Amino acid sequence: MIIDSLTVRDLALPLVAPFTTSFGTQTRRVTYLVHVTGTVQTAAGRVRTAGWGECVSLADPLYSSEYLAGAREVTERHLVPLLQHAQREGTEITAETVASVLAPVVGHPMAKAALEMAVLDAQLRAHGVSLAQYFGATRTHVPSGVSVGIQDSIDDLLRAVGGYLDAGYVRIKLKIQPGWDLEPVAAVRRAFGDDVPLQVDANAAYTLVDARQLRRLDDYGLLLIEQPLGEDDLVQHATLARQMSTPICLDESIASAKDAADAITLGAASVINIKPGRVGGYLEARRIHDLARAHGIAVWCGGMLETGLGRAANAALAALDGFTLPGDISASDRFYTRDITEPFVLENGTIAVPTGPGLGVEPVPEMLDEHAGLVQELWAA
Ligand code: OSB
Ligand code: MG
Asked: What's the CATH class of domain 2-128+364-380?
């Protein structure tokens, strides 16, 4: 496309309840939205188009080194200028070229992914193609799992899990940390039985010294344990994988298709959580899906408390064949009283994949008025 404007808007949405993981508690989702406008050459001629992106970075550098203010800053000072320079020099900015144009900047995958998402949305809207069609995904609905935060008590946990099961979620993920692991897992199994698809996520809260404790989770028939050890601990994850029968899934450790290949080669993961923001965008996410599929490694789509924009894109990605496990693609009301788009709702334990062009959803202006800050122009017409 030929970009003629790019703006960002800060956004803050309250959460329906605090969300606690081993790295901290969130009570609201703060992020920024990217909006890009321009023209795209199509078979029908040059058409005006616009697209939305959402940054999945969290406010603080606790889940990843990237944090929201840094992502916003690098976008303004480095990434948008790289796009402008490339366009001036005659490189067409498309979803397929964004990553290589931004490659000189080291790191900052979530900031890069938000830009790529906006360009991809704009480009697909111009061509009248949905994101799912672009990926080659055929499923119309994706199974919906829910991530359950660390609670103040086992009673609170059982109430929360019971509510999600009643709502129809088809898979439960419990956040764990040292001191909140075997007991909550055992309590959920006791209360809801052995047939509930159940998995745990440690967000890197353990070390290999804890191997004996982690191995005790093998008694509970878990689908997987997600990111027990540190982001950099690929070799140690491979060691742990040989010591326990519960499949190891990596989240934080996988920042690229290359990381996924390394993890598979080392035996550090038998499942991969794909989060498009964490790996620099939906195109790299797609490559990880393809790579994992070729190796017979299961993947599922993770979540970062996305608004309806990111939720729409995640549903489209998860509609690909290789996503063989339910993702953290819950209904909008799992996190938000009111989403910024039309809400995603549970239908028989699934989320419908949008069918309209691009993301297939758009922010409701009234919600932006209420929850978004001023429009900041980073690339003026
Ligand atoms: O580790 O998967 C994670 C949310 C923020 C940061 C990291 C993680 C999560 C979740 C929430 O588990 C998933 C969701 O958006 O539903
Ligand atoms: Mg995780």
From this structure: alpha beta
